[in-house]
């Protein structure tokens, strides 16, 4: 069995309203060193698959189809055997 | 002319759309269940507002895989009239029937209030009863209506006159203050290249009866009927 | 085996309550049984402290179809239709996790309505927080509003009204009261009864997890650090699931297969099962192994006490199980038979073949202890009531005071909140938030239903009996101003620790005041909710008996709103403005005082004023109506101008202090406007009806101008207020958003 | 300068409605191997701080104060020097 950890971020060119609100709040709380904040999604998917290559294929597939919207989002993922 | 209103799990403006279409056009209108495999017999299909699948993951992302979307997409490709309102608009972008994407409102809050829209193109089935530049008042109610498309797509949209509605002030000026959610170019509604698929964030069905204090939304449903009956467009 | 006293004490049972359990069972209870007794006998579920007082409320009237005792009250609105409504608190969970606390509060009250077979058509939220200069308060306010918005908008029920007050006493204990209103054809009304021996019992909706175990007990103690430590896994709401559950339940109820239905609220499966059995005089046998679970390894104790949201318990006609399952399956929901109705009155819980609990259902409900707790007049009352309000200095600049009042968060526009609520979905909202009461149409008829929530906690603190009576009167007045006849009340009673005699005294006083006003105004109480222990480190919230009220508009063409309509219209004050500054927002803003005796309430006068205004709205004579509340006459006039987008020119005779005249909060006062040619007709009618009134001036211009003439004293009168409506509006509309930045 | 990658997940016993809808949807799309899906947040914060220990302290602080809701969420983070 594999666990996929998927990191989805907004594309660079897309304004991130959540990130900029959080950055401002952090600043207001006194964290003046904060330069930028980007907020995305973190997904953990457990896959009952024996083979790493197969798991990788499936995860990529799911991301392209459903989990990620390529118009505004990018993603990376890691696979851990569990 | 027969209208169909798709019911996804979590749609909540389905009954409202049905009611408004019935009241304004007097034409037959039926619900289409999301598991339905066909949309035969319908002349115009409405994807209503609401929170299909709770808006979980991304608005419209899950709904676009509903069985009904296959025939809806085919219907659209054949030139059938499809209109997505609010969540319906989000589903249409996720399904690739319309370009771009809708993400979180700039201020991160859900917003429910009247907005003014300028009709940018009155040659579509959805706006043929309007005059170009006409200002109408239609309410919004969404948390993710912030329209985004990459610069090239945006340029094409503008060039092809696919931007149908823009947020404006009561006098028709397109200003940053009139933009409730941060949409690029104040975009409130767009259509596809062929002009038969419309997506808009504001809710025309909510202002189509005098008792609700505003009838500007009638314009869109009347346009559809008149276009169908070749009385305009 | 004898149980360690620590076990029941930690669950919130007293030693004598434990003895009573042993007596009822005729044996020592086991662990599961103690847990079941503990939640059912908690204050939250048993009303053991409040019941004696609640019994004194008027609950009957010609329009009442269902009074207290069911999941919600029901009133007749004619044509075979009825309104189902109820209010509930979610204070403790919201103080811990504002978003989810408020969201699940909305979810819970919606289920109370659709469990009766009604379609929810509106939500109202009545909120109380500390002062907005505290960042934690801003966090709570934002979170609560977002939670209500997140849940209500998603499920597609409009949030059409409510109220928000800010006062220090709510700093550690915010109040989140949510009311839901539903519509039903009377023939479809369902009740929470487990009738028909042998009928199957089904669990439907979400799977059961370890959420909120002992939530009811948690809601029945003070918020302390230890309590926060022991807090149950926070319930997360799933509005999408609830939407499916709503549609599926309404569909299944239409079939006639359902015998009884109840939502699983506080104390989950435990309360729903024993209450349904107890109401029907039956028993229930359930096998917990059959209950669908979200987590592995849950014990029977956990399954019985889980407060997982979005679940219902159904009793259906024998033989219809499969058809019921089919309908739920259509909506992608689980529906599982977990047991059956029995004739022995026993709640028998099994895990597989093993019986894990066996308790007479009525022992958990009707046999719950009742406490007549001692009362004592609080020491602070005399001091605050006798404060020499009349010796305070009068202001120099009335313009400045009026603007300050309009910017006070208690008076300023609440659109920061309601802009985040979808108040239009459903296509029924005829009067949207921002007027006195919300009005919804009833499709297919000429009728409308009006609704409001009201309570000024400060008044209740200064004089609990009068304060509670005013809450009822104001709610009714708000409905009348919108053109509706008040029908019935639901209430949410938010108080501190009732084990303190002072809190108990204010509780009784509030009930007395409420009962009196409900009798006088003929608006019986159909149910409600009691939330005690809103208290931290000895600081209790202001006594806050929130009133939710619904009314009927016979003809939607005659709906009235508060905004002035047309230049030249004549403005009148119906009722009597008296020198009453006690408890006013003015005292707080200008002097930092929450003192004095609150305004008096004369119920005879109130009735007269309301009857007159309602009649003349119906006759078409009155064009706008707005009652005076916080901020008094001047603020009410400003609001009429803002809503109407037009100014007013007012002249009054000064019979007492100018600040009391403009900012005092006398009750039973309604500002109306009529066509300029109809003034004479109006006055004649007022005189005939014996209703006191004052002519105030004329609608028009773009400023609010208030002049005062002083007959006995030359040079004392003059212009007190002269402000552009635009300025007034900016101040009022932007105040809260500005504080939230 | 450091970049903090913060992974926020719902606590174990807390209901994850998003995750379960996504799991069902993946199943309907034919991914029958998917066992569980949990959805959380992924945040990237750029910090103009020279010292790793200091960066770590600040990030932990921000998470506890603002970025994470300890009532229902857990978090972990990584720091990369950039
Ligand atoms: N939390 C809220 N949610 C929705 N509407 C609200 C809320 N708070 C206030 N409102 C609306 O704002 C208007 C004014 O409220 P309030 O000041 O309590 O009026 P009143 O003094 O007449 O009772 C009402 O229409 C009310 O429903
Ligand atoms: Mg009020």
Structure, explained:
- The complex is a heterotetramer, with two copies of chain A (82 residues), one copy of chain B (233 residues) and one copy of chain C (741 residues).
- With 82 residues, chain A is of the alpha+beta class.
- Chain A has one domain (2-81): 2-Layer Sandwich (Mth169, Chain: A), CATH 3.30.1280.
- Chain A contains two helices and three strands; from the N terminus they run E-H-E-H-E.
- In chain A, strands 2-1-3 form a three-stranded antiparallel beta sheet.
- The termini of chain A are close together.
- Chain B is an alpha/beta fold and 233 residues long.
- In chain B, 21% of the residues lie in helices and 24% in strands.
- Chain B has five helices and eleven strands.
- Chain B has a nine-stranded mixed beta sheet with strand order 2-1-3-4-11-10-9-6-7, with helices on both faces. Chain B has a two-stranded antiparallel sheet with strand order 5-8.
- In chain B, strand 1, helix 1 (14-25) and strand 2 (29-33) form a beta-alpha-beta unit.
- In chain B, helix 1 packs across helix 5.
- Chain B is globular and about 45 Å long.
- Chain C is an alpha+beta fold.
- Among the domains of chain C are: 1-40 and 191-368, Phosphoribosyl-aminoimidazole Synthetase, Chain A, domain 2, CATH 3.90.650; 373-412 and 560-741, PurM-like C-terminal domain (Phosphoribosyl-aminoimidazole Synthetase, Chain A, domain 2), CATH 3.90.650.
- Chain C contains 27 helices and 28 strands.
- Chain C has a seven-stranded mixed beta sheet with strand order 8-10-7-11-9-12-13, sandwiched between helices. Chain C has a seven-stranded mixed beta sheet with strand order 23-25-22-26-24-27-28, with helices on both faces.
- In chain C, helix 7 (98-114) packs parallel to helix 11, helix 8 (135-155) packs parallel to helix 11 and helix 24 crosses helix 27.
- Chains in contact: A-B, A-D, B-C, B-D, C-D.
- At the A-D interface, strand 1, helix 1, strand 2 and helix 2 of A face strand 1, helix 1, strand 2 and helix 2 of D.
- The site of magnesium ion (MG) has 3 residues of chain C, from loops.
């Amino acid at each position: 069995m594999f666990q996929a950890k998927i990191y989805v971020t907004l594309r660079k060119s897309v304004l991130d309203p959540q990130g900029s609100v959080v950055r401002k709040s952090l600043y207001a709380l006194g964290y003046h060193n904060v330069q930028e904040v980007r907020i995305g999604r973190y997904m953990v998917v457990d896959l009952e698959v024996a083979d790493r290559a197969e798991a990788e294929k499936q995860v990529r597939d799911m991301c392209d189809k459903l989990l990620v919207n390529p118009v505004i989002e990018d993603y990376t993922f890691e696979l851990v055997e569990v | 002319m027969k209208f169909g209103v798709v019911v996804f799990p979590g749609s909540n403006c389905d009954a409202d759309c049905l009611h408004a279409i019935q009241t304004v056009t007097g034409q037959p209108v039926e619900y289409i269940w999301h598991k339905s495999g066909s949309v035969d017999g319908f002349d115009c299909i409405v994807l209503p507002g609401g929170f299909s699948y709770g808006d979980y993951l991304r608005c419209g992302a899950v709904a676009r895989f509903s069985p009904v979307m296959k025939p809806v997409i085919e219907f659209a490709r054949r030139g059938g009239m499809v209109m997505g309102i609010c969540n319906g608009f989000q589903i249409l972008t996720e399904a690739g029937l319309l370009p771009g994407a809708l993400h979180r409102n700039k201020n991160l809050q859900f917003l429910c209030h009247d907005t003014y829209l300028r009709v940018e193109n009155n040659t579509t089935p959805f706006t043929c009863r309007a005059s170009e530049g006409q200002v109408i008042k239609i309410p919004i109610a969404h948390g993710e209506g912030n329209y985004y498309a990459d610069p090239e797509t945006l340029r094409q949209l503008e060039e092809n006159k696919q931007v149908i509605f823009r947020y404006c002030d009561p006098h028709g000026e397109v200003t940053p203050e009139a933009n409730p959610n941060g949409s690029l170019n104040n975009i409130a509604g767009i259509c596809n290249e062929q002009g038969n698929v419309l997506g808009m964030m504001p809710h025309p069905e909510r202002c189509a009866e005098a008792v609700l204090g505003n009838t500007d939304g009638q314009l869109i449903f009347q346009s559809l009927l008149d276009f169908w009956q070749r009385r305009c467009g | 085996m004898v149980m360690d006293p620590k076990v029941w004490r930690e669950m919130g049972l007293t030693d004598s309550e434990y003895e009573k359990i042993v007596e009822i069972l005729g044996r020592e209870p086991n662990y599961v049984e103690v847990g079941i007794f503990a939640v059912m006998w908690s204050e939250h579920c048993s009303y053991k402290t409040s019941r004696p007082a609640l019994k004194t409320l008027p609950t009957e009237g010609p329009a009442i179809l269902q009074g207290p005792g069911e999941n919600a009250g029901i009133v007749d609105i004619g044509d075979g239709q009825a309104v189902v409504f109820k209010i509930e608190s979610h204070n403790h969970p919201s103080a811990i996790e504002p978003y989810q606390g408020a969201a699940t509060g909305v979810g819970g009250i919606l289920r109370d309505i659709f469990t009766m077979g009604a379609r929810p058509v509106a939500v109202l939220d009545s909120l109380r927080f500390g002062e907005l200069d505290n960042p934690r308060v801003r966090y709570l306010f934002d979170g609560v509003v977002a939670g209500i918005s997140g849940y209500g908008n998603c499920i597609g029920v409009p949030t059409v009204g409510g109220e928000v007050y800010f006062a220090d006493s709510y700093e550690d204990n915010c109040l989140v009261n949510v009311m839901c209103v539903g519509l039903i054809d009377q023939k479809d009304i369902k009740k929470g009864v487990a009738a028909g021996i042998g009928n199957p019992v089904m669990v439907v909706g979400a799977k059961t997890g370890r959420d909120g175990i002992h939530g009811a007990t948690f809601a029945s103690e003070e918020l302390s650090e230890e309590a926060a430590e022991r807090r149950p896994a926070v319930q997360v709401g799933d509005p999408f699931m609830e939407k499916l559950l709503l549609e599926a339940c309404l569909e299944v109820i239409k079939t006639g297969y359902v015998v009884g239905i109840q939502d699983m609220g506080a104390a989950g499966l435990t309360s729903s099962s024993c209450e349904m059995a107890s109401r029907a005089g039956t028993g229930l046998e359930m096998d917990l192994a059959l209950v669908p679970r979200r987590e592995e390894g849950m014990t029977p104790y956990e399954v019985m006490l889980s407060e997982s949201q979005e679940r219902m318990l159904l009793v259906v006609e024998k033989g219809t199980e499969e058809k019921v399952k089919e309908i739920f399956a259509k909506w992608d929901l689980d529906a599982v038979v977990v047991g059956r109705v029995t004739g022995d009155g026993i709640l028998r819980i099994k895990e597989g073949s093993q019986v894990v609990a066996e308790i007479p259902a009525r022992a958990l409900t009707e046999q719950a202890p009742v406490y007549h707790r001692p009362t004592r007049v609080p020491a602070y009352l005399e001091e605050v009531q006798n404060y020499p309000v009349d010796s305070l200095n009068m202001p120099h600049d009335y313009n400045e005071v009026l603007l300050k009042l309009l910017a006070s968060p208690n008076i300023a526009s609440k659109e920061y909140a309601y802009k985040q609520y979808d108040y239009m979905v459903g296509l029924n909202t005829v009067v949207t938030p921002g007027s006195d009461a919300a009005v919804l149409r009833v499709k297919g008829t000429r009728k409308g239903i009006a609704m409001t929530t009201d309570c000024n906690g400060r008044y209740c603190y200064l004089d609990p009996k009068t304060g509670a009576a005013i809450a009822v009167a104001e709610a009714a007045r708000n409905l009348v101003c919108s053109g509706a006849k008040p029908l019935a009340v639901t209430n949410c009673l938010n108080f501190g620790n009732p084990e303190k005699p002072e809190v108990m005294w204010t509780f009784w006083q509030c009930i007395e005041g409420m009962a009196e006003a409900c009798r006088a105004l003929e608006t019986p109480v159909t149910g409600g909710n009691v939330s005690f222990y809103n208290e931290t480190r000895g600081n209790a919230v202001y006594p806050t008996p929130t009133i939710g009220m619904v009314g009927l508009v016979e003809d939607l063409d005659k709906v009235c709103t508060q905004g002035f309509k047309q230049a030249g219209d004549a403005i009148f004050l119906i009722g009597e403005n008296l020198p009453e500054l006690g408890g006013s927002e003015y005292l707080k803003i200008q002097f930092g005082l929450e003192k004095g005796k609150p305004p008096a309430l004369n119920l005879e006068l109130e009735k007269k004023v309301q009857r007159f205004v309602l009649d003349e709205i119906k006759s078409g004579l009155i064009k706008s109506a707005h009652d005076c509340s916080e901020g008094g006459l001047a603020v009410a006039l400003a609001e009429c101008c803002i809503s109407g987008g037009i100014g007013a020119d007012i002249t009054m005779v000064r019979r007492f202090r100018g600040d009391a005249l403009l900012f005092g909060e006398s009750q039973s006062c309604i500002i109306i406007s009529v066509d300029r040619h109809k003034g004479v007709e109006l006055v004649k009618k007022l005189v005939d009806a014996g209703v006191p009134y004052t002519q105030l001036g004329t609608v028009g211009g773009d400023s609010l101008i208030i002049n005062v003439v002083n007959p006995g004293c030359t040079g004392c009168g003059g212009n007190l207020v002269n402000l552009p409506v635009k300025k007034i509006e900016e101040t009022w509309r932007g105040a809260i958003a500005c504080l939230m930045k």
